[in-house]
Write the structure tokens for this entry.
Amino acid sequence: MLELVYQEANIEQLFEVLTKELKRDAREGNHFLYSHEDSFIHFYFYKLIEGFDVFISNCKYKEDIHTQRLPDNDPDLIFINIVRIGDVSHELVDEEDQKHLDAESQKRILIYNGMYPIETLFKANTHFQSLGYYVSKNAFTQLMPDHKSVFRQLFPGTEGLAYYTFLPIELNPLLDDVFHFREKVIGSNPLILARALEIFALLFQSIIGMLDKDDLNGLHYDDYQRLLKIRTVLSGNFDQKIVIDDLAKEFGVSVSKLKRDFKTLFNSSIYQYHLNEKMEEAYRRLKEGKQSITEISMDMGYENPSKFSAMFKKIKGLSPHEVIPSH
């Protein structure tokens, strides 16, 4: 596994760590262009104005890449990452949670203020592409003077705060253009910056709309910790019925906040998440072949094996009998 530890927004430090770990200095000005056999790690960095940096990631490596991005301790600098291709897992340091941000799901955008550490895992031999931004409060104000209050709406204090949100469909062709210009067009820098700025403006138009409708929910560090504990409860009590009111009371949060936060992080309702986890555990036990369908259905909280079988097929697309190994 390739281990990369660097401070958020410290590009020079990232390049130094890459050079050390890869045993090759692949820096070319503001870019890092490593290629070897079927592996490549390409980072391209551009500065539009002071405090507004754009970066393009295009990577595929023979081993897992594990990064630890340390806090930059600057609440007036935000990080935006938009996944185009591939799968990436973001997680909080010292916690067990992993939040997948991938190009196949709708929530392809992470926005956070770099005030707590984040670990990221890129799977081996998986092609990953993303467009990112580092944006200071001053640069945001220069670029969007009519909406300068949005920065403080999103990040009102100095606490760690993150948002996962959707990629507006109209941004897909613009995102494609950025990578096309990078690979195919000579003298592409102005075109890349123009498209990146257009994506940024349209993204924040969408965010402003969500804020106006109260559809955007940010998660603080304490929210993450609470949700991880709740996830543990959901993943370890398969024979019990989940009562959201009881969960909310146990963890000292309102029912509405619990539902909203859970949906924000896991993109699922609490009931659906618990059901999916339950059926995944049932699938694992069926594959082992050590228990009967009746025993597993009882362990999953079903008194009637036929009801369990019907729900299992609905979730997994096949019956329990089709999973049990033949002898």
Notes: Residues 221-327 form a domain with the Arc Repressor Mutant, subunit A fold (CATH 1.10.10.60).
